[in-house]
Design a protein that fits this description.
about 425 residues, 24 strands, 7 helices, alpha+beta, 14-stranded antiparallel beta sheet
């Protein structure tokens, strides 16, 4: 659910998790998935063998303390057929070229994610040395995925612990099979979108307002409030969603946002308007406003961060699979909940101001616990981008959300207005004023 509200949930709660591992990272194009260290900053690499870097910063200095790299390495045909011999040759090359102080005991053969692997560990560097753990996982003859974790020499136990924890979550899969599956998912999503009508919207819009509490470690840190109806914009009738969000950060800061989202069933017209304000612990506020309009196959986006600062952007939309922002919360109500399967859509991501591939999967019948009671539900998974973790979404018989569990531990759970207003009445009144 990487719409505006969930993007802010993830932003504000990123610092709050105390677990050693963070949300799952997936690279569907290369067929790999794992959980990096919790709280790590991710950076895609643009050149060389490195694919992505995850960095943990020191809480006091802000300097990078521990880094994890995912790299690809390819060797000549036949060189690594005897993995034990290749491990010794590799170790010798790394000693000579990178100053990797590898003892004989520090070079081991092992198995990771069901594949043969070479495990190397020790100080590295020609001058200033750091502790380095490299695990070379042989995906196929001559082709390796390398997971490297580095940190200060006195952090060697932590580097090994983080490396072991992440490697235990590594999953490898056939990227070509994943590509074929995406094609099927996108075809299913396209068929669903082609059949949308005003009557279908009338059937699935919520008959009343609904409220979701945002929970972190069982503590309510905010809420999301939805109102759904049919409405008119620019003389066209369509779906109208109003969404109000309040979130409290670990440092006591608060983010308030009000969104008005509109789309016609043929998706020829889309408009959205988001007003938000970040209030820091000292009471200072920073406003943010974003307006979007779909014209032909373009999404025109305007972002205002101050009275004198405006940024405009145009995004090309894949028309047949594009799911407008207004339809995003309705997606679980539009799919066939009785039939397991996945649906692919192109969606706009306000946090990155780009187009992402969303995959919504119907898993099957389940139960969910609310207020100490078990309720029947249908379980779905929701992945808002190819490299995004999957949320677990429990919905009722018509597809309304009962509970949403993000992989970082954040939970959105159905509740009542009374429960929300008992804690957030003042903030609710503030966020309502944003629309005036």
């Amino acid at each position: 659910m990487r719409h505006w509200a969930m993007a802010m949930v993830l932003l504000l709660t990123a610092q709050a998790g105390a677990q050693e591992l963070g949300p799952r990272f997936t690279d569907s194009l290369r067929g790999l998935s794992l959980q990096p260290p919790a709280g790590a900053e991710m950076r895609r690499e643009t050149g060389g063998a490195s694919l992505v870097q995850f960095s943990l910063r020191d809480g006091q200095t802000g300097a990078v303390a521990v880094s994890m790299y995912l790299l690809e390495a390819t060797v000549r045909e036949g060189v690594a057929d005897d993995l034990a011999a290749y491990a010794q040759a590799l170790a010798e090359d790394l000693r000579r070229e990178q100053g990797y102080a590898l003892t004989a005991e520090a070079v081991q053969l092992t198995t990771v994610a069901g594949q043969p692997a070479i495990d190397l560990r020790g100080p590295i560097g020609q001058v200033a040395k750091t502790y380095c753990r490299q695990v070379w996982i042989q995906r196929e003859p001559g082709h390796f995925l390398v997971v490297q974790v580095r940190g200060p020499l006195d952090q060697a136990p932590r580097v090994n612990r983080l490396s072991d924890a992440s490697l235990a979550t590594l999953e490898l899969f056939d990227p070509d099979q994943a590509r074929r599956q995406r094609e099927q998912d996108l075809a299913r999503g396209s068929d669903l979108l082609a059949g949308l009508t005003l009557e279908r919207f009338r059937q699935v819009i919520a008959p009343r307002d609904y409220w979701l509490a945002v929970l972190q470690k069982g503590r309510m840190i905010g809420f999301v409030h939805y109102t759904e109806s049919l409405g008119t914009r620019l003389e066209a009738e369509g779906l109208l969603i109003e969404r109000e969000t309040v979130l409290t950060g670990p440092d006591g800061s608060q983010t308030l946002s009000k969104e008005v989202l509109f789309a016609t069933p043929d998706r020829q017209l889309e408009r959205y308007d988001t007003q938000a304000v970040l209030i820091n612990p000292s009471g200072q506020s920073t406003p943010h406003r974003e307006f979007g309009l779909k014209q032909a196959d373009l999404l025109l986006v305007q972002v205002v961060t101050s009275p004198t600062t405006t940024a405009d952007k145009q995004l090309q939309l894949p028309a047949e699979i594009y799911l407008p922002l207004a339809m995003s919360p309705l997606a679980p109500r539009l799919v066939d909940l009785d039939q397991p399967g996945s649906y692919g859509f192109a969606v706009y991501n306000p946090a990155g101001q780009n187009i992402e591939l969303r995959t919504l999967t119907v898993v099957g019948s389940s139960t969910v616990r609310l207020g100490g009671q078990e309720f029947p539900a249908t379980l779905l998974t929701d992945q808002m981008a190819l490299d995004a973790p999957r949320s677990r979404v429990y919905v009722d018989a018509v597809g309304l959300p009962l509970r949403i569990e993000a992989e970082d531990g954040t939970v959105l759970q159905q509740t009542t207005a009374q429960a929300i207003l008992a804690q957030f009445r003042n903030q609710y009144e503030q966020v309502r004023k944003l629309a005036r």
